[in-house]
Design goal:
10 strands, 8-stranded mixed sheet, 38% helix, 12 helices, two-stranded antiparallel sheet, 373 residues, alpha/beta
């Protein structure tokens, strides 16, 4: 595993490396011999899944454009789940909600990205004094397009149900990395990082989920091309700094933090830097299991509940660990949704509805457990 961890800094791992499960890695033609040699040295069996990803990406781009031409425009205050939405559409949807329901919905701007896209979220609340708070964010990794629909579904459910708003105040951030998300739509489908400039002009961007101010570890601070490059220092990215500071600001009331990623069908809890159990590990497992059971009850999809370091790989500076370790949020999770398409990060639009339909009951079960304990 340590060697795999080092490889992850140089190659683009799609599936999670781990004992007993397959992993998927994207490499350039120049890198392929090094990867094959490493796998042979470690006696890891391997096969080529997609010899040339370019044609697959182009085919899926044409499919998305065709769906967009057929799609009806979004109605005000109504999200759609038959296609992937642009950041602008998502922001307009939240703006419309805030205008239509000013007594319960408040737009929030957490930061401005280096390319000018605002990090926009929404607070939904009945305004009851002294309520606990819940946080959900999506698409901090730009290419994980399946995640914003889950955040939108949470918004839809909470707007429509006063009982949910009576449970807690809800903070939802559908696109945590808008610069990167926009770039992944317009230019590079598998772009992961932010779009901030680096000394190497050929390798812009920082992995925002390695940039939080909790055990931030520069690793190789000049490895700008790495998909997990953590930045020049903790909170170097305005998106990350804005989110992190806001979490600290509401820490007194925040009891649940959920970062929604893809892919892997996992519910991960802290920490990423160690497999040693945290003090409330039993409660974290119990709440996560309640969520996984509710997801499985919809269509049989099995999510595992695991420590992040054991279930994923060793990490530093992640949002969930920051929320738990600095924000003192008692329940903090990273959800890795189902994958699909030619690569796990690009499920076809036909899978959006099934994913949000099965994940929402899991989110609701998680919230119920957390607020009852």
């Amino acid at each position: 595993m340590p060697y795999i961890n080092r490889l992850s800094k140089h190659f683009d791992f799609w599936g999670t490396p781990g004992v007993g499960r397959p992993a998927t890695v994207m490499v350039s033609p120049e890198q392929a011999p090094l990867v094959v040699a490493a796998f042979n040295r470690m006696r890891i069996s391997h096969e080529v899944l997609i010899p040339d990803l370019g044609p697959e990406v182009e085919r899926e781009r044409l499919e998305r454009e065709a769906l967009l031409e057929l799609a009806h425009p979004m109605k005000p205050r109504e999200a759609v789940y038959d296609r992937y939405l642009s950041c602008q559409e998502i922001h307009h949807y939240m703006r419309d909600l805030s205008a239509a329901y000013p007594e319960i919905a408040t737009g929030i701007v957490f930061a401005n990205g280096t390319e000018g896209h605002k990090v926009k979220g929404i607070k939904i609340s009945n305004g009851n004094a002294g309520q606990k708070a819940l946080w959900f964010d999506c698409a901090i990794h730009a290419r994980e397009w399946i995640t914003p629909p889950v955040c939108l579904r949470i918004i839809d459910e909470v707007i429509a149900d006063p009982a949910l708003r009576d449970l807690a105040d809800w903070y939802i951030l559908p696109v945590a990395n808008p610069d990167g998300y926009n770039y992944s739509i317009t230019t590079d489908r598998f772009w992961r990082k932010t779009r901030s400039p680096n000394p190497d002009p050929n390798c812009p961007g920082t992995d925002p989920n390695r940039n939080f101010d909790f055990l931030w570890d520069a690793g190789n601070p000049t490895d700008y091309c790495s998909e997990v490059y953590p930045g020049t220092n903790a909170f170097s990215e305005p998106e990350v700094s804005g989110i992190g500071n806001f979490i600290v600001d509401i820490a007194d009331s925040l009891v649940l933090y959920v970062a929604i990623h893809s892919y892997g069908e996992q519910i991960l809890y802290p920490y990423g830097h160690t497999v040693e159990p945290v003090p409330n590990v039993d409660q974290l497992i119990a709440a996560g299991t309640a969520s996984a059971d509710a997801i499985a009850a919809v269509a049989g999809t099995t999510y595992t509940v695991e420590n992040s370091a054991a279930g994923l790989y060793f990490t530093h500076g992640t949002s969930g660990d920051f929320a738990y370790g600095i924000g003192a949020v008692q329940y903090a999770y990273t959800y890795e949704l189902s994958g699909g398409g030619s690569a796990g990060f690009d499920p076809p639009a036909s899978l959006i509805q099934p994913v949000v339909d099965e994940v929402w009951p899991g989110i609701k079960a998680l919230v119920d457990y957390v607020l009852a304990n």
